[in-house]
Amino acid sequence: MHEKQALGGKLLTKPFWVLLGLAMIAGLLLIKRFLFGIGAVTNLSDGYPWGIWIVYDVLVGTALGCGGYSIALLVYIFNKGEYHPLVRSALMTSAFGYTLAGVSIFIDIGRYWQMYNVFLPWHINVNSIMFEVAACIGAYVFVLWIEFSPTFLEHRKSLETKRKLNKFLFFFIALGVLLPTMHQSSLGSLMIIAGEKLSPIWQTGWLPLLFLLTAITMGYAVVIFESLFSAVALKRPLDETPILGKLSTMMIPLLVLFLLLRFGDLIWRGQLGNIFNDGMLGAFFVVENVLFLIPVIMLASAKNRMKATTLFWSAGSMILAGALYRFDTFLVAFNPGVGYHYFPSASEILITVGIISIEIMAYLIFVKKLPVLPAIKHS
Amino acid sequence: MNLERRDFLKVLSVGALTAGNVTSVFAGIRKTLSADAVGILYDGTICIGCKACEAACKQYNDMPPESANLEKATGVDGIWDESYDLSEKTLNKIKLYEHGDASTRNREENGFAFVKKACMHCVDPDCVSACPVTALTKNSTTGIVEYDKDACIGCRYCMVACPYNVPKFEYAKAIPEITKCEMCNHRQAEGDIPACCEFCPTGASLFGNVTDLLEEARKRVKLVAGSTYEYPMRSLDEGDLTPKTVAPYINYIYGEKEGGGTQYLLLSAIPFTKLGLPELSATSSASKSEGIQHGIYKGMVAPIALLGGLLYGAYQTTKNSEG
Q1: Is residue B190 within 8 angstroms of chain A, CB to CB?
Q2: What is the pLDDT of residues A146-194, one digit of tens each?
Q3: Which neighbouring-strand residues pair with B229?
Q4: Is B26 on the interface with A (CB under 8 A)?
Q5: In CA terms, which of A106, A235, A304, B291 is 20 to 30 Å from B153?
């Protein structure tokens, strides 16, 4: 059992007020969205029905929320107990990421008051990838909060309840690995049906595996990035660097597998040459894959892996790579035909910024008030 | 730490994920027309671009005209319809191809031609496969792709999936719906034919049984340019024929094979790619996406096996811990 400790300290700091302001701007814009329709605040069109609310908030947002999944996979399934200190904060970030992705879906869908139809057996369509994604994400949000609930119980000193819950927790841990495996791959499968509208550089039957591999890798990168970032921002010692360095080795084989599959598939389908035919898309492809390659190279030597700065930048590069891969697949390389263009409107961006602000505020409240982060060792 | 269990789990999890994926072969043409499937044959070579079909479509589907901002500002709204393409208020649309001096009809160089855009009523519709809540369905008798707003959650995945960008969304409404051509199924229920065919003065939009329409289309593409042919008006069954001079048809029926076939078929004298119609493979994207998804989730065997392994692993690692 690793000791966890609430950080304490003042909550209403200056950055917190700024975040609160951003969240309130988003709140006002959301009133506009619900009164006058999605068109009143977004640049979405008949050709581009999905914008940053789906691509950033849901696709990138849930991939960034894969920390809990990736770490649980290591600790509970592959029995790597040494990573246990990372579990709780990873689960917390996942719970926020997924909950807010759910909120974003609610904002984005047009007929939100009928959202529950996705769970009604007489309405569901088992052929629909969207059904699989929606049902799985919905269930996983619930599972994540159960997995995280021991933290609340500790805080409220309900140790008896916590002991009872622990007996069943293995069931939720197993579900907490199964569900992301299913929906993170299905998030990639979503675009198979877009067929010819998605550039052949990105359109492939391997989308589910490519999305799953990058989601798990992003999960590790987020845990590393967040630990180091919060250590600096919250002025905590960089005690966790050795274990983060060890964790970073998990990313290398996953990334190598991803790159082999990505390029192998392009060569197999005879599409590699297309990178040079389409200037803009080719450039995006190159940037995307360079970003994937950076962590592989930076983390190759054991000495580098022990440096906090190397870890920080390679994790950052991995997060950008996974995010760009998602943006490319769903927006940049998606071409519905002549005459359609999409760039998010200011309101659309501000609503996403507001949602991110809420996420950071929730993080600050939780680490300051609840036993989430490992206790600082005083020597 | 027992190595065997660890290895077993690794094999299980990786295997479960990839097995279906690797082995799944893209499904071929898997859905066929029902014998009673109805459709529309649009022959661009005899269309005169009068837009009577558009006006009739709006009238019988209660769709308001789209007007320009200038008209709105001057208060003479609603006289002139100005939709640029299909939209949430426009379910069919006549469009014009022009090249050079546009002197000759049905010619690619220095000519012009018409094309009509509307829902293609695919034999294996991607939108129906995509919809998570069965709001879009394919009628088992008529084959019409129908929409149920009481099921729809407004996720707009149908719009991502449709290769023709047909389903439209009411972005300007707080209570929005998806709109698309439903081949006037409300009129057909009363024994009428779709409004666009009923009010077409030249027979360019022709209603009928899809199999019969395909036969008619095959006959037309074989005709000699310049000869005279008796073109049926409104509906194939009606038997009202008008003689017209035959244009130099492209020997291709758009919709016969596209994405597994469609119930809306098009004929033209200029290449279909020039008319803004996409080049599609002979199988639907839905057959690929469902092939992979059902490959992975066949009988839910892989997920259940994976869950079994995960439960075992999670139980072993947590049974002695305090959390």
Answers
A1: no
A2: 998 888 888 888 888 888 888 888 889 999 999 999 999 999 999 999 9
A3: B244
A4: yes
A5: B291
Q: How far apart are CA A230 and CA A308, in angstroms?
A: 13
CA distance A162 to A155: 11
Q: Does residue A65 contact residue A217 with C-beta atoms inside 8 Å?
A: no
What pLDDT does residue A166 have?
A: 82
Distance CA A62, CA B24 (A): 27
Q: What does the pLDDT read at residue B16? A: 47
**Alpha carbon distance A19, A91 (integer Å):** 22
Assess if CATH 3.30.70.20 describes domain B38-281.
yes
Distance of CA B135 to the CA centre of its chain: 15
**Per-domain residue ranges of chain B:** 3-28+287-316, 38-281
Identity of the residue in B169, B288, B297 whose CB atom sits nearest the CB atom of A46: B169
Q: Say what the pTM is.
A: 0.90
Average pLDDT (A235-259) is 89
Q: DSSP for A273-309, please give it.
A: THHHHSHHHHHHHHHHHHHHHHHHHHTSSHHHHT-HH
Q: Which residues pair with B145 in a beta bridge?
A: B138
Q: Do A177 and B310 touch (CB under 8 A)?
A: yes
- pLDDT tens, position by position, A339-378: 899 999 999 999 999 999 999 999 889 888 888 887 776 5
User: CB distance from A110 to chain B under 8 Å?
Assistant: yes
- ∠ CA A149-A154-A157, nearest 5°, is 125
Domain ranges within chain A, ordered by starting residue: 4-368+370-374
Chain A CB contacts of B151 under 8 Å are: 114, 117, 123
Tell me the shortest Cα–Cα distance from A12 to chain B, in angstroms: 32
Query: Topology of domain A4-368+370-374, per CATH?
Result: Formate dehydrogenase/DMSO reductase fold (1.20.1630)
A-facing residues of B in 65-104 (CB < 8 A) are: 85-88
**DSSP structure class, residue A191:** G
Q: Is A189 on the interface with B (CB under 8 A)?
A: yes
Q: Which helix (H) or strand (E) holds B126?
A: helix B126-130
Parallel/antiparallel/unpaired status of strands B93-98 and B38-43: unpaired
Phi, psi (deg, nearest 5) at residue B178 = -85, 135
Please report the ipTM that was assigned to this predicted complex. 0.92
Contact A293, A213 (CB under 8 A): no
In the predicted model, is pLDDT for residue B296 greater than 90?
A: no
